[in-house]
Structure formats: C-alpha cells, structure tokens
Amino acid sequence: MSISSYIAGLNLPFSNAQLLNGLACGATVGAFYFALPTSAVREAADREAGKIAHMPPGRQGEIITLTHTLGLIGPALVFTIGLPLNRFKTPDWLLRFTLPPAPSSNAYYGLRLAGVVGALGCGAGIAWTTKALAAQWHFIGVREHPKLVKTGPYAIVRHPMYSFGILMDLVSAVMYWNWIPLAGAALTTVAFAIKIPMEEKLILNKKGLGDDYKQYRREVPSRIIPYIW
C-alpha cells in the first residue's frame, strides 16, 4: 500500500517514509503541546492551593523528576530535531535502531499511523489528568493547602500522569519504528518506581490528608497499570 497514492491519488513530492516521519514529528509536538501546563495553570495552582510546602529530603525529588523527564523528552528531541534536519528522511545513525520488519507493508503503515493517533491520545490524556488535578498540580511535592483528587483518571489509577508518560514512549517506538523510545520507557518506568513511594510518603505524612489517602489507596489499589501495577 502506498500512502501517497492512498491520499486522494495525489502525486506528493515526498516519499511514504518522509510522510510517516513528518506525521510522527507533528504528533510528538502536538502531544507535548497538549501535555505541558500553561503558565496560567501554574499560577492558578499557586494562587488557589499555595506554594509547595513539603518535598522529599535533599534533592531526591528534583533528581528523580529530571531523570524521568529525560526519559520522556530525550527520545522526542532526538526525532523532532534529527528528522526535520534531514528533510524527514531517517538518518543512517537512527536507522541502526530500527525495529524488526513488520509482517507486511500494510501492517507497517497501519501500526505507525496507529502510533500517531496514540501519541496524540497520550497528550490529551495528560491534559485530562492536569485538568483533574487543577490547583493541586505540580511535578512533585505537597502544596500548602492540599486536597485529595479522586476524580477523572485518578478514579482508575493513583498516578495516571505517569501511565500516560510511559505509554507515550511505547507508542513513540511504534510511531517512529525505532528502539530508542523503548529505552526512554525503561528509564521512566524505573524513575517512576522510585518516585511513587517518595510522593506517597509525603502525602501519608501530611496531617489531615494521610488518613484520606490510606482510604483512597484501598479504593484505587493500582498505581499506574490497572490490576497489574
């Protein structure tokens, strides 16, 4: 199947591979655009719930947050910079990390396009999570006036933003047909496994919030993946 011929029979001035790479880059940029909170969101959170009052000791929180951020943004930067600079042709150094061939060209095109849709879905999912958090949003820490959030995606898992983050790396591997995002997924998964206990300890130790969170953990036992983790 030829994507260029599939799109209304147009004689497009680029190859199928370039088109797929362009769509993938666009989906990545779009996903991060949806996902990153605006300055208005951050300012509203500070105004309504106060500044961050409780953080992990030392610089643990900052280091682990930087680690999973690298696992998420690193692969995205590799492709959204490397591909446009090469006219959306996959450069030789990236080809070294290409996934094994798909069973057929139809499967290959279908999976990569599904990855594009999945990436946009992940961005929308993170935006949904940010909306549910509202004034409680922050990368790590407990605000001066904390409130337990149990609605939206938080009714399914306790850390849905991390769920969408890992999923973003996984669908990116399919979208770009490359191993590099899977390395990012491994890094973010390890970082989240370390960060979650740190975050939950802060919440449990917060007077007036800890008991409610214990009940919430009983109601929503899954951290990131329903029924699994």
Question: In terms of topology, how is this protein built?
Answer:
Layout: H1 3-6, H2 16-35, H3 39-49, E1 52-54, H4 60-85, H5 92-95, H6 105-133, E2 142-143, H7 160-176, H8 180-204, H9 210-219
Antiparallel strand pairs: 1-2
**H/E element order:** HHHEHHHEHHH
CATH topological fold name: Four Helix Bundle (Hemerythrin (Met), subunit A)
What about the largest sheet? 2 strands, antiparallel
The overall number of domains is 1
Q: In percent terms, what proportion of residues is strand?
A: under 5%
Summarize model confidence as the mean pLDDT: 90
Strand line-up in the sheet with most strands: 1-2
CATH architecture: Up-down Bundle
Helix-strand category: mainly alpha
Q: How many alpha or pi helices? A: 9
Q: What gyration radius follows from the Cα positions, in whole Å? A: 20 Å
Characteristics of this structure?
229 residues, mainly alpha, two-stranded antiparallel sheet, 9 helices
Short description:
With 229 residues, the chain is mostly helical. It has a single domain (16-219), classed as Four Helix Bundle (Hemerythrin (Met), subunit A), CATH 1.20.120.1630.
